[in-house]
Amino acid sequence: MITTLGPCKHLSPRSGFVSDDEKIPANIVRAPDRPDDPGPLFELAGPREHLYFDPPRVRAGIVTCGGLCPGLNNVIRSLVRELHGGYEVREVIGFRMGYGGLDPRNHHEPMVLVHSSVDDIHQQGGTILGTSRGPVDIDAAVENLIRRKIDMLFCIGGDGTQRGAYALYEACKARGHALAVVGVPKTIDNDVLYVDRTFGYLTALEEARHVIDAAHNEARSVVNGVALVKLMGRHAGFIAAGATIASQDVNFTLVPEVPFRLDGKGGFVAALTARVRDRGHAVVVVAEGAGQDLFPAEPRATDASGNVKLKDIGPFLAKAIAEGFAAENLPLTLRYFDPGYQIRSTPANCEDAVLCDMFARQAVHAAMAGKTGMVVGLLHGTFIHVPTSLILSGAKQLDTDGLFWHSVLAANQQPDRFG
Amino acid sequence: MITTLGPCKHLSPRSGFVSDDEKIPANIVRAPDRPDDPGPLFELAGPREHLYFDPPRVRAGIVTCGGLCPGLNNVIRSLVRELHGGYEVREVIGFRMGYGGLDPRNHHEPMVLVHSSVDDIHQQGGTILGTSRGPVDIDAAVENLIRRKIDMLFCIGGDGTQRGAYALYEACKARGHALAVVGVPKTIDNDVLYVDRTFGYLTALEEARHVIDAAHNEARSVVNGVALVKLMGRHAGFIAAGATIASQDVNFTLVPEVPFRLDGKGGFVAALTARVRDRGHAVVVVAEGAGQDLFPAEPRATDASGNVKLKDIGPFLAKAIAEGFAAENLPLTLRYFDPGYQIRSTPANCEDAVLCDMFARQAVHAAMAGKTGMVVGLLHGTFIHVPTSLILSGAKQLDTDGLFWHSVLAANQQPDRFG
Amino acid sequence: MITTLGPCKHLSPRSGFVSDDEKIPANIVRAPDRPDDPGPLFELAGPREHLYFDPPRVRAGIVTCGGLCPGLNNVIRSLVRELHGGYEVREVIGFRMGYGGLDPRNHHEPMVLVHSSVDDIHQQGGTILGTSRGPVDIDAAVENLIRRKIDMLFCIGGDGTQRGAYALYEACKARGHALAVVGVPKTIDNDVLYVDRTFGYLTALEEARHVIDAAHNEARSVVNGVALVKLMGRHAGFIAAGATIASQDVNFTLVPEVPFRLDGKGGFVAALTARVRDRGHAVVVVAEGAGQDLFPAEPRATDASGNVKLKDIGPFLAKAIAEGFAAENLPLTLRYFDPGYQIRSTPANCEDAVLCDMFARQAVHAAMAGKTGMVVGLLHGTFIHVPTSLILSGAKQLDTDGLFWHSVLAANQQPDRFG
Amino acid sequence: MITTLGPCKHLSPRSGFVSDDEKIPANIVRAPDRPDDPGPLFELAGPREHLYFDPPRVRAGIVTCGGLCPGLNNVIRSLVRELHGGYEVREVIGFRMGYGGLDPRNHHEPMVLVHSSVDDIHQQGGTILGTSRGPVDIDAAVENLIRRKIDMLFCIGGDGTQRGAYALYEACKARGHALAVVGVPKTIDNDVLYVDRTFGYLTALEEARHVIDAAHNEARSVVNGVALVKLMGRHAGFIAAGATIASQDVNFTLVPEVPFRLDGKGGFVAALTARVRDRGHAVVVVAEGAGQDLFPAEPRATDASGNVKLKDIGPFLAKAIAEGFAAENLPLTLRYFDPGYQIRSTPANCEDAVLCDMFARQAVHAAMAGKTGMVVGLLHGTFIHVPTSLILSGAKQLDTDGLFWHSVLAANQQPDRFG
């Protein structure tokens, strides 16, 4: 159930309306031996006929948080264009450098965003607003939002960002300021519940394949070449998996969802040395969140965003591989590729550009109707409204019994399990 | 309801099975004021536990028909790999040059497809099997299929191809030969019912945007520059629409779903000259099937595939634009771009590569279970089995009241209608 | 011998000077049986210690003329940056829409070019100044240049442009106005004397190869596929030749330097049908200026730039091919590619970007030293000053006895001559 | 003076011959106040009329050594094609895994290279022959070459490779076996004397710019973002310099030719912090061989090829930057990019493809004429024969007083010197 700031008394200047009563269920698969359990129902996103805000009086704010992801500028651009062009909102403000920019003490002066200031930005990676990790100082931010008379805030970011966004809404409400907070989910890892595909993911695949192509060329041109490519994927291996299927040149794909043993018969290193003995080279892709259980169980630090700092599986695996080959007296030419920042800064490809545009415009429609404490989702191919609490209730992971992971195993021919 | 050749008595060598009883409905939107009408239910695609065929005895055939589309080689490759690697089928035959290759009188000797013959083909556009337009000679083809003891035929192609595929199944049945015919829907236009997205479409967007970028650069560098880009889209404007959203540099998008008037106040030409007077240049994208009603209503020829031959809207529109500018004494520098074949021959991008792989593997699973007269579909993000008759019952078009087309109009700022 | 406006009395604010006395010869090959004939000697380009103009008082103008070419914006940007950054020139004016922009009656208001107005332009194809074909109206332009107190004019363009540039200098001189006119040679065809490689040529090769790849995929996927690709090259086949070597997938390369017969034994059509009979497909690349002698010898029209309008060899050849196949009763699937405008509008690749930057900066150095009636050249890998009259005295063509053309014939395996 | 195995008694089956008497001088600049010193004269490369070897009896070998470089497969392909196609040589053998493959004890069985085995290899990065670092065991290799009756050996590699090549020739001669050894110079660093541009360099620029674009996007999207990109360049900064000019987004370019001080007023760190204070971000490109004097002067190890192992300037600089910012209490978001292997494994771009083809074919012509102890060079735009001893007599570096480095300083606006 989506929270709304209040009754919608203003008529929309747009057309093609969607009703709050149209809904889709989380679960659409039916089977005779199972009770029909639709799970949560989500209202459809899209323009509403009746608005909570009077468009020409709206002051909107935009903020981008966390790590870079292809498409951030596209989202900013389409938010600005829909606000200005679709609703004739007069003031749109871009807060700079993530949540830090909401706090005036950081001296990141906000940008006024007009039509021309976003003209070509979708052709560039990164975010013109800047970004940072780290939580929002609720009091300072709320004070600032109220002082600047911001009516709606679009928060483009991941888990922490959406959690902070909801806290902002609640604190504003406590102070009697009606702030619509609408999130656009951002994670290059594609691991958000109720979002079929987050923007940036497909662009990341392209760039990852580009690097895997190089890694493959390198591996097969040297004596016992092993190319190890670390890709994004803190809790879910979608990028590693998708790049494996797209490339068809990866021989081992290690993801967080499938724990693996390094040593011993049936372990990863034994499989790798066997492959190299047999074929002379190998390409290994590892998601950054894979194999975390291989590190000593010590208290883990967290980063500024509150995420547990992952141990770096890349160099760890490289070392294990080198030791494994040495133990077998097998020469090894190991090449390590860590293209993370390169991938994150790439401009959006076409499908991501379309996705960004559609996410952004649905976010504006929702905010105009006074929806708050929600993010825009994309379920079964349909844009929806998702309560922030629901989207934060878990995370999407690879279904290792599903067709997608089957395609990975068919492509790389690795065993179901190592060890 | 999917036709099956007979009872499934063989055990699958695979795992991760899907049951025929799991289904998803065509319609998932629920609204309180409407009765819940799920529409047709579709069984889920995926590996079956019980097979009609005994895998090691299977002889499979593959044929690609109609115009080129990014991803054809990916589909061929994954069919071969799933047959050989997933089921250990021993004989896979590639019929050459479309349906013409089923008829021995055309002397297109089929290729035996083994693991190594498809190794790198996914990195290339086109189809290693070759393709052609034109119907299948049922009698000759059936004779040949029976003689070659082909058990299953994978038909990669559009409407006409799937229609022919079904006819082949029926004719074989009449002759007492159990042929599983499974289609993989192929159309760069993305206009197939019960298929969220056909392979090749996203790659086409990338290549189309590449050409639109050039067209935009050209148009804005010359005096009153108008760049006219003809894109694919016989009956549906998905490519023109998607490229418009992705590029954000298109000013007019003409698609089959939205008829337009050329002349007079409110017509397209008046809008174009107004834009050029105001901004000095314009980019126009036209789908090949747009504006067909502007041509004289005469009996239309059909091509070898039985498709009505479209009139060529590109040069027609170029002429109309030139005349319109001349009538207003407005200088014009017109550049015409017709990148159709260039787009069709591009290798698949990552998402299309993934899509091709998954379509192909589900096609193999279906055929092994003896399903026939069907194509693999993709509905609400889920791979399904669709009876061929149902997929041929209509075509997908742009919903001009929907969010996607709204994004197009927001990007190009063109009026809802011309005239 | 380079014309100079007068004595150089101002000291340069720069360093790393080159002397007017340093020269390189046109001909560097020595052979014992030949007298050593160096041909013309050219002074080296680069910064001069003594300047004719007092930099802070200079008013500079820039104009781009003729067809688009990758790198135009790079040249504009580096001219502006060298003028502002290297010499602290205060006023730089961009005349718009080619020579037409020098004539105030055309109402193309010039742009004032400052550091920030050229910031990102090198990432885009086209020219921000606009361009057009057509001669300069000397009287109107000179009047305008004098009125605007323009001291130096950078003319980026081909033959006609440089000819006009020289006329401007002479007319200014007759009116007592010291105008330094320095040309930057621009032709995508790479056919300028004393210029090893014109900017845009290498980018054109990349884009041409991209289209040839598609053409090759198309040709080999259809029955008797012939892909015909028309590329730039009015009088010289450098693009067709370079793309052939780079691609290695072209079977026939037709250039202006090598006349060919279409019909009869030994003719092009016979060679093409033989290839298709043998291999099933062929890729043909034709430069736009090839085969002009195959058209009826009638008086030829000229375009606005005064260039003889070429007959369109592309459709002509397509027709001849179709007729040739028909005459032999050989089925044919012909695909025609005409990517000219697409190639011309591409942003510069790295090597062209470097070339543009270096051409532009040497042009500024030359103008500051009061050199006029000259263009910047690039001979034996060295930037030089070339009198405009000398650069217009002929054109560079493929040496059909040389190593480059030998590489073409080795790649495509075509006979030395057709007919 | 090029060494020749003996008199040329066989007639060439080719045409378009070049004479040994045609020569170009190393130095072509003339100045009145300097005596005309042409320096060494080099004979032109190209097909010779008279050959030392009888082509149909030739057995040729090819070996690729050292690190990967874009274009290796193009060179292999054109060697094979020129040998088979141009001279009808019957046996071409590819030795595998660098010089290690010449020694049978390493069990790298050579490949027989025929026309079809190199068909599509130019489209892939890496080398199909494989490569390795490390010297050649002269005795074992010579024994093997004699046993296999190899007449000519094409050695594609850098300094150490060419040195080894010459030693092979001499040892064969001592054993009475006439081996023509012809080198194709390979270094991605572009630092070979008498070679205007080595193959792979331009492709490296493109890929480097691609990474710099990402680095720039990253740097300007975060708080005080510094992107540090390490590029190739052991002794010469051509890649760092060229990528700076092409990108125009680099702020600091550190190369081996220009020593720099890190600390203190006028040092690099002070300049960097000043830039970040002023502009909020910076992009730093460092060649791998830059700043080696900043490391303690201890005895240096050498790699298997005998090259001194460079200290890794990347992490060293990253640490220095972090300390410098910390010392000034300036927040820093540092991103480090190390794309070396990615760049080395990229397929050749068009200009490199052309270059590879032409280098390879001239190498074949030279070997056929019995030239030995030489490499193919490219001077003043002309392919030449260079004695191996001469090419090893030094290395090419950036001329820091020249026009190219001036363009770098104009692009990045860095001071001439740090400290």
Automatic annotation (TrEMBL), chains A, B, C, D:
EC number: 2.7.1.90
Gene Ontology BP annotations: fructose 6-phosphate metabolic process
Gene Ontology annotations for the cellular component aspect, listed alphabetically: cytoplasm
Function: Catalyzes the phosphorylation of D-fructose 6-phosphate, the first committing step of glycolysis. Uses inorganic phosphate (PPi) as phosphoryl donor instead of ATP like common ATP-dependent phosphofructokinases (ATP-PFKs), which renders the reaction reversible, and can thus function both in glycolysis and gluconeogenesis. Consistently, PPi-PFK can replace the enzymes of both the forward (ATP-PFK) and reverse (fructose-bisphosphatase (FBPase)) reactions.
Lineage: Bacteria, Pseudomonadati, Pseudomonadota, Alphaproteobacteria, Hyphomicrobiales
Pfam families from the UniProt entry: PFK
Keywords noted in UniProt: ATP-binding, Glycolysis, Kinase, Magnesium, Metal-binding, Nucleotide-binding, Transferase
InterPro entries membership: ATP_PFK, PFKA, Phosphofructokinase_dom, PKF_sf, PyroP-dep_PFK_TP0108
Similarity comment text for this entry: Belongs to the phosphofructokinase type A (PFKA) family.
GO MF assignments: 6-phosphofructokinase activity; ATP binding; diphosphate-fructose-6-phosphate 1-phosphotransferase activity; metal ion binding
Cofactor or coenzyme needed: Mg(2+)
Provenance organism: Rhodoplanes roseus
PANTHER family membership: ATP-DEPENDENT 6-PHOSPHOFRUCTOKINASE 1
Keyword Metal-binding: yes
Phosphofructokinase domain location: 59-366
Keyword Nuclease set for record: no
Superkingdom of origin: Bacteria
Name of the protein described by the UniProt record: Diphosphate--fructose-6-phosphate 1-phosphotransferase
Catalytic activity: beta-D-fructose 6-phosphate + ATP = beta-D-fructose 1,6-bisphosphate + ADP + H(+); beta-D-fructose 6-phosphate + diphosphate = beta-D-fructose 1,6-bisphosphate + phosphate + H(+)
